[in-house]
Structures are given as structure tokens and as C-alpha cells.
Specification:
about 140 residues; alpha+beta; 2 domains; 3-stranded mixed beta sheet; two-stranded antiparallel ribbon; 3 helices
């Protein structure tokens, strides 16, 4: 239905999840925390499909029901608890990124020495009046 960066190895499940050890409509490889049930129909049987998605979950797996109909964007259904867990995790990851960026900036700032007047004068002496290195000082090819 929809492939993104989340799991580039994901592919449609042969026989639509009817295999013994792999349930759901999307094959993620050996193991996944999520079991995806995909429906592409004009009439919606939400509770029937949601029950099917739940029945396909193994121990520790969470169901996701993806529903699509013609000329409409797909909709995904998850448990409310899973939704809020994902939002919390997203917030935590964004905070960790900000913390790491700040730490990186502080480390960078502490390793770079400010330019002094002496550095500026030394730089001007190496350059001509127009700011370019004179021909006599250019390295030969």
C-alpha cells in the first residue's frame, strides 16, 4: 500500500498473511513489533477488520489496520495507547536531538579559538592590497 523509510525491506505478504508463522499483509522480515492488516475496499467493516488485525498478533506485537478506498488517502488505525506511546517517543527523540545538537555546538565552540588582531594582521600581510595572494607567493604547478 505504502512504502517509506521506516522499513525498506517490507514487502507484500504472499497469500495475504495465510502463512503459519507470518501473519498480516506486510512482511517485515524475521520479526516486527507491528502486524499490518491492509484493506482496500469501498465499504468499511472497521470492527471486523480490527478484530482480524488483533487476532494475527503474536506475543509482544501490536496491530495496525490500514484502510484505503478509491480517491481517498489511506487511514491507519492503532490502539490509542500505542498512538500516545509513539507520540511520547517522538517528543523524547526530538528533545534528545536538541540536547545532542547543543552538546555538539558547545564542543565545537570550545575547540575553535577566536580570531585575534594578530591573526588579522598576519592574514593581511600574506595578501596584497586587493585581498588576493600575489603571483609571486602562489605555489607553482
Amino acid at each position: 500500500m505504502y512504502q517509506r523509510k521506516i522499513d525498506p525491506k517490507a514487502e507484500p505478504m504472499p497469500m495475504s498473511g495465510a502463512m503459519m508463522n507470518h501473519k498480516g499483509d506486510i512482511f517485515h522480515g524475521e520479526w516486527s513489533d507491528w502486524v499490518d492488516e491492509c484493506k482496500n475496499q469501498e465499504t468499511t467493516k472497521l470492527w471486523e477488520w480490527w478484530e482480524q488485525a488483533n487476532e494475527q498478533c503474536g506475543l509482544g506485537q501490536r496491530p495496525v489496520l490500514h484502510i484505503r478506498k478509491n480517491h481517498q488517502k489511506p487511514v491507519s488505525v492503532v490502539w490509542t495507547e500505542d498512538y500516545f506511546d509513539l507520540r511520547e517517543e517522538n517528543i523524547d527523540l526530538k528533545e534528545e536531538i536538541k540536547r545532542l545538537e547543543k552538546e555538539l555546538y558547545e564542543n565545537f565552540k570550545n575547540t575553535i579559538r577566536p580570531i585575534t588582531k594578530e591573526d588579522q594582521v598576519r592574514g593581511l600581510k600574506k595578501r596584497g592590497e586587493n585581498g588576493r595572494v600575489s603571483r609571486s607567493r602562489r605555489p607553482s604547478k
